[in-house]
Amino acid sequence: MSAVLIWLILAPIVLALIAALIDKTVFRWALAGAGSLGYAVLVSMTVWYVWGQGPVHATIGGWSVPWGIGLRVDELSALFYLLLGLGLAGAMLFIGSTRGFNRGESPLLFLLAGAGAGILAAADLFNLFVFVELAAVCTAALIALKGAGPEGRRDSGAAGFLYLVLASASGMILLVSIMLIYAATGQLNMDEIAGRIHAMAPLPYAAAAAGVVAAFGVKIGLVPLHFWQARAYAAAGSAQAAFLSGVAMKLYLYAMLRILGHPLAVAQQAPALLSALLVIGAVNVLLGHIMALAQRDLRRLLAFSSVAHLGYILMGFGAGTRLGLVAAILHVVNHVMMKTALFWSGHVLCRQTRSADWRRFRGCAEAQPLIFAAFIVASLAIVGVPLTGGFASKWLVSVAAFEQFGLWPVLVVAMGTIISAVYYARIIRMCLGRHSTQDQERSRATATVTAPRFVVAARVPPTLAAVACLAVGMGIRWVLPWVERAAGALH
Amino acid sequence: MHDRAFIPFAEYAFGLPTTGAEQALFAFFALLGLLVILFMLPDRKPGMLVASLFHVTGGLLTLAANDLIGMLLGFELMTFSAFAIIIQRRDRAALGSGLRYIVVQIISAGLFFAGAVWHWHLTGSLAVAPAAPAAQPLFLASILIKTAMVPLHFWLVDAYPQAPYSGGVLLSVFTTKAGVYAAARLLRVGWLGQPVVAWIGAVVAVVAVVGALRQRDVRRLLAYHIVSQVGYMMAGVGLAGVDRAGDIGLNAGLFHAVNHIVYKALLLMVAAAICPLFRHDDLYRMGGALRRMPKTFVIAVIASAAIVGVPPLSGYASKELLKQATDNQLMIGLLSLASVGTGLSFIKFVYLIFVRPSKEPLPPLRDPGLLRLTPMLILAALCLFNGLWPALVSSDFAAAYYTPKAVAIGLLPPLVAAGIWVVGRRQVLDKMPAAKAIRWPEWVEKKMGSSYARLRAWHGIHPQTVFLALFVFWIALALGLS
Description:
The complex is a heterodimer of chains A (491) and B (482). By secondary structure, chain A is an all-alpha fold.
């Protein structure tokens, strides 16, 4: 089994190298599809094994743990592996079937997935740091990539550069934090650190913990550090933003929860940090939703919505209880599905109207009924209507936060729900509108290209993701035990 | 506090309500759903039919829910299916009203959600029962929106007239009455020893009637009367906050809801039968329908008499029970005043549509076909049935409905209304400026525009600033923690 752990990381990287060598569109498509599906199968089998047999450990190069490189997959990382594998397969199928890959796109996605697999499996802080940096470079390249393509935008280069600069800064802070921890404990392995962390002096400990929050805060979009996201997602395009916001962001989130929860043991050492995270989470919720309300570009709107939903996750984590952690992880799972479904169906709607501005979505409901239905289901879930997964996790977050902090976090959650209902309802209302005859004549006069045709495969990933949003909510009694086991690995 | 939270949809259950009036409301919800959907069939709008089925399901689920989350699920089902019904016409006005409708309902649901969390925290139970005192204000706010109590009524009078005629009939039945049911099960507000909800209801009953008297549009008029009648119901169920006879109040409020959905659906069906023939909704341009639509006329008179509370009809019975529930003369006075206004309004309604000769050339008018007439006749019969045998419908209290004194007092408001009509018909008809609709989302956005500009400017900051922010953030967190 330990060999499989290594291949979980190596397989996407090897696939990335092969994909980079292929020039012919058909082969690139075939490799992306077959490779990502195969990877999803590999991941699912690993997850199955971990859930049945317990955590798996591996060391590389024959050196035992305090010195060698350790890998570990437990229930928590298994859950995130599942999200990564399915998200990657979905992204590959969707991008391949809607607009085809830009040059370099599928290798970068594979490489990002490999880096993500490394983040999930790393058992020591230095490996974690290396993979985080690799992922940052891939992300920056993915954001900037569109500038090179035929439908490129000038902003994507600048947005990618901005992300690169910020990611380097955050990497530096992460490195300093790791150095502080290493100086105090003499260890990089997480389990070893966990045994000695109580002896660490308060000031270095606080600096290290705050550094971890700040470093990953940039990547996940913690409120004062979130402003790059909307710009980057708009530049990357909704098909890639679905992967960046839906899946890649969760990997950093995993790393943050893992470091804070297990080796640093903030619940015992610095409960104040958890309260601070809850407050920042509430700010995220409000600011994210309010800014989303003002957006006209659908991709920017969804980017701010993901800032808000990070807030819900942090509110659950910040409650500091087992229930709060379960709520946070459940919301991670839900958000992956909701946000990918929204980005993908939104991508089809954008291409249908040849505009990312949702105010021009009039007539989409008739042109793309299935995709529109998926969009509606995903927005119901993300608003948090009962019967969907979104409601279940918001309910748990609210209950967990209430037990620690009283009514105000619940009011924040309710407020966020209301604001998000406004902006999703506005988009749906616009899609339902009919073209006036004047509009039709004008578009007939100016249109040089006909509306894009989509292959059937392009409709599958958004629909499946939307169905998953519903399935998680309705089958919550079967989903929740898994999430509880995942939370148990950390708490 | 609790080691495990309630898991939505894993631990809930549905079941029939237990008391007689609640069961009656459930049965009438089901019956009305069936009849209105029959009434809808000639429209041939499959999308609206599907939405209507969801709407009826939502209404029944709300009544059948054993826990607050199930109730919330019912509310949300009703909200989204109502949105689908309202926007059927797909034009700007309908879409705008639908958007406002959904936003207001989500605000109500959000407050309900927060209340449920609090209630769960305090009691460890989500069973549908009178809410914990601390959570009452949240539920109160949620239910006042849901039941469209003035000044929170704008969504109702704005949205219902936008729906297709038959869709509007369906909307009038469920949402507000489900809100009344929630009030009956959850709210026990007795601040300062006063039944606050009952006072709100009584005042709204009067105010909304005044609003109704100012309308020209048939369905806006009927929508204002929904608000007013829901005021009666809230006056009944609100009594449970303090009154020793609170149970009679609950019974009376729910019984009034049962009667109201029957006659209000009937009145809207009359509107649905007439307005499409005239091709407009303006009361003042109608007239002279009596000779060509005699059956519709009889039905309209029965329904109007029922809503006004003329003795052998259903409205009389529930209003009589309502009067027996309280001995506060001021509240009874307010409700009687509202009855006078209702009487005036419906004399005007019948007069303008059927009696007064039309000033414009008459369109080809005729009674609706059998498929539409059958539900209307059944409902008219129910108006009579509920009035003659009220004890069969709301069976919990053996009240004496038809004492000579009660009948005399019940006859008084319609007679006063008729008197006012005879004396001052010109005054009533001509002093009718159309009320202006409130379009608040636009207003909010205009007000918030400048702060948005500032927020947006903040999002355009340079990387250098960000470095600074990053380090300050880090150091501040570290100092705060150590």
